[in-house]
């Protein structure tokens, strides 16, 4: 679950009870990330930590060893169909270099035209809305996104 809500703390238990296995919250919307991470873990879920485009990756870094996934937003949160922000890729690259085994997700404007940049930067989890939903062949778009990411991940392993 990617929680783009106020008062993220109050939805941890209800989401766990509903069957969520990962709870992704926004760094900008909590005063106490450490307590929220602890609560998510105690409720048996994996932890995702999201940052908006205006938040630097240095703000996320102190928490990176305590989370399962970092989500780098590649549009301003709000709605689908926005333009991919390529200038977020250095954040992904930096996280991939510093935390090689961390799951890194990108969300916003990701599709066949932008996936290569995301995968090469090091993203291994992809959120894609319009590119899939507006395609005449959603299955092939999903396969392409998946293949580009797994090929980039394999290449990273070989290069190590
Ligand atoms: O929730 C958001 C943005 O607020 C994203 O999840 C987008 O909705 C993804 O859609 P596309 O940008 O791929 O159309």
Automatic annotation (TrEMBL):
GO function terms (MF aspect): D-ribulose-phosphate 3-epimerase activity; metal ion binding
Source organism superkingdom: Eukaryota
Cross-referenced InterPro entries: Aldolase_TIM, Ribul_P_3_epim-like, RibuloseP-bd_barrel
Record key words, sorted: Carbohydrate metabolism, Cobalt, Iron, Isomerase, Manganese, Metal-binding, Zinc
Cofactors demanded by this protein: Zn(2+); Fe(2+); Co(2+); Mn(2+)
Any Pfam family: Ribul_P_3_epim
E.C. number: 5.1.3.1
GO biological process, alphabetically ordered: carbohydrate metabolic process; pentose-phosphate shunt
CDD domains: RPE (cd00429)
Enzyme class: isomerase
Catalytic activity: D-ribulose 5-phosphate = D-xylulose 5-phosphate
Quaternary state and interactors: Homodimer.
Family: Belongs to the ribulose-phosphate 3-epimerase family.
Function noted in UniProt: Catalyzes the reversible epimerization of D-ribulose 5-phosphate to D-xylulose 5-phosphate.
Protein name: ribulose-phosphate 3-epimerase
Species, as recorded: Columba livia (Rock dove)
Origin organism lineage: Eukaryota, Metazoa, Chordata, Craniata, Vertebrata
């Amino acid at each position: 679950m990617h929680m783009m809500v106020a008062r993220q703390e109050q939805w941890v238990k209800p989401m766990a009870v509903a069957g969520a296995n990962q709870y992704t919250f926004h760094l900008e919307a909590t005063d106490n990330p450490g307590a929220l991470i602890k609560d998510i873990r105690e409720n048996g879920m994996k932890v995702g930590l999201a940052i908006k485009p205006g938040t630097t990756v240095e703000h996320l870094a102190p928490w990176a060893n305590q989370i399962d996934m970092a989500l780098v937003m590649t549009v301003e949160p709000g709605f689908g169909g926005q333009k991919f922000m390529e200038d977020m890729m250095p954040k992904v690259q930096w996280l991939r270099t510093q935390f090689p085994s961390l799951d890194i997700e990108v969300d916003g404007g990701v599709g066949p035209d932008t996936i290569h940049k995301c995968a090469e930067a090091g993203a291994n989890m992809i959120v894609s809305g319009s590119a899939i939903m507006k395609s005449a062949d959603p299955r092939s778009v999903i396969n392409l996104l998946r293949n580009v990411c797994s090929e980039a991940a394999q290449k990273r392993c070989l290069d190590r």
